[in-house]
């Protein structure tokens, strides 16, 4: 074959190689984008909205929302199997302040805040306060147990792999897509405060403190300025 006749063949092979490489890059970028989108939707702050509804929450500049006593919704039935195989009913804690944290072992922000929750829990558990977790989207209890062991979590967590417990909350109270989330249930069993973000130790204490000192009774507990979510 002459050099002149072989040149188009080399050119065709080169073009095919470039086309294949571009196609592979497009697939890789598309797959990567899809993975990032899935991760963000599965584990993020979810903003400050709980999906509408007349919740009565007022959101402070720090992202912590509170509701006046007369505006608070009843906490739903939160009972079932725990991560360690026991049984828990949050209603048994009525008369205590309950700090309810929604988490998953797969969620980096949950891992970041776990030690903060355990530290604050140890400080306040003798003041009529009970911490309870809701573990979600872990397909088995193994990773959840490993999470609790790694971070020294001593309070119980309900095992809720499909999120059915979260769907029991009144619309606008809790966004099931916002992991982690934290709610405070007052001594009467009503949802008094919430935040749809990971919490530092300082923010967790700020959120909880008004309920340790006789209740602020309303939006003043989370900041001077706020936006009503009614």
**Sheet/helix structural class:** alpha+beta
Extended strand count: 10
Low-confidence stretches: 27-42, 45-53, 216-228
Strand content: 15-25%
Gyration radius, to the nearest Å? Answer: 24 Å
Shape: globular
Task: Please give the count of helices.
Answer: 4
Q: What pattern of helices and strands is seen along the backbone?
A: HEEEEEHEHEEEHE
Explain this structure to me?
By secondary structure, the protein is α+β, with helices and mostly antiparallel strands. It contains four helices and ten strands, in the order αβββββαβαβββαβ. It has helices at about 5-40, 110-125, 140-150, 200-210; strands at about 55-60, 65, 80, 85-90, 95-105, 130-135, 155-160, 180-185, 190-195, 225-230. Strands 7-6-5-8-9-2-1-10 form an eight-stranded mixed beta sheet, covered by helices on one side. A two-stranded antiparallel sheet has the order 3-4. A hairpin with a 5-residue loop joins strand 8 and strand 9 (about 190-195). It starts with a helix and ends with a strand. About 35% of the residues are buried. Residues about 25-40, about 45-55 and about 215-230 have low confidence and may be disordered.
Summarize the structure.
With 230 residues, the chain is an alpha+beta fold.
């Amino acid at each position: 074959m002459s050099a002149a006749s072989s040149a188009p063949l080399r050119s065709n092979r080169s073009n095919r190689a470039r086309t294949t490489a571009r196609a592979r890059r497009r697939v890789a970028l598309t797959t990567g984008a899809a993975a990032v989108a899935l991760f963000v939707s599965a584990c993020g702050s979810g903003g400050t909205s709980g999906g509408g509804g007349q919740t009565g929450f007022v959101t402070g500049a720090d992202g912590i929302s509170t509701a006046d006593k007369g505006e608070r919704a009843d906490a739903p039935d939160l009972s079932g199997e725990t991560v360690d195989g026991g049984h828990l009913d949050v209603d048994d804690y009525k008369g205590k302040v309950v700090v309810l944290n929604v988490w998953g072992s797969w969620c980096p922000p949950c891992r970041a805040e776990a030690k903060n929750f355990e530290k604050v829990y140890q400080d306040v558990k003798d003041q009529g306060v009970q911490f309870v977790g809701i573990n979600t989207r872990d397909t088995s209890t193994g990773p959840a147990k490993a999470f609790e062991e790694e971070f020294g979590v001593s309070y119980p967590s309900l095992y809720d792999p499909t999120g059915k417990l979260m769907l029991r909350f009144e619309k606008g109270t809790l966004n099931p897509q916002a992991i982690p989330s934290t709610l405070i249930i007052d001594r009467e069993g009503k949802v008094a405060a919430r935040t749809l973000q990971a919490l530092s130790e300082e923010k967790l204490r700020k959120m909880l403190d008004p309920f340790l000192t006789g209740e602020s009774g309303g939006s003043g507990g989370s900041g001077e300025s706020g936006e009503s979510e009614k």
